[in-house]
């Protein structure tokens, strides 16, 4: 994925969703992420990374299962979670970042 390092270097928290099109729990998280973006607006950037199309990036961040979530701020990973996450946890981690 081109420019990934530039995207995560932002001073606004960046939530990265590592997902796969065939993953049921990933599909479950889609409306949660949409609601999160509506709720937080410009306070967060959300990007989705298809692990099947971006295997080197998934390997770089040691993604072994999907969905996997990471929050970056100023280029540094500040949180990591895997599996279905409640919106309250994602909001808490983003606001803490």
From TrEMBL:
GO cellular component terms given for this protein: cytosol
Q: Which InterPro entries does UniProt cross-reference here?
A: Thioredoxin, Thioredoxin-like_sf, Thioredoxin_CS, Thioredoxin_domain
The answer, when asked if Disulfide bond is one of the entry's keywords, is: yes
Q: Which UniProt keywords apply?
A: Disulfide bond, Electron transport, Redox-active center, Transport
- Gene3D superfamilies this protein is in? Glutaredoxin (3.40.30.10)
- Disulfide bond residue pairs: 23-26
The segment(s) forming the Thioredoxin domain are 1-97
What GO annotations for molecular function exist for this entry? protein-disulfide reductase activity
List this protein's GO terms for biological process. Answer: cell redox homeostasis
The UniProt site entry described as Contributes to redox potential value is assigned to 24-25
Q: Which Pfam families match?
A: Thioredoxin (PF00085)
Residues at the catalytic site = 23, 26
Identify this protein by name: Thioredoxin
User: Where does this protein come from, organism-wise?
Assistant: Nonlabens agnitus
């Amino acid at each position: 994925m081109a420019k990934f390092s530039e995207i995560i270097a932002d001073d606004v928290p960046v939530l990265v969703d590592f997902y796969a099109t065939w993953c049921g729990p990933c599909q479950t998280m889609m409306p949660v992420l949409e609601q999160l973006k509506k709720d937080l607006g410009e306070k967060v950037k959300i990007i989705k990374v298809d692990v099947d199309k971006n295997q080197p990036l998934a390997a770089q961040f040691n993604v072994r299962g999907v969905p996997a979530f990471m929050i970056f701020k100023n280029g540094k990973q500040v949180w990591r979670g895997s599996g279905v996450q409640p919106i309250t946890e994602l909001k808490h981690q983003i606001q803490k970042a």
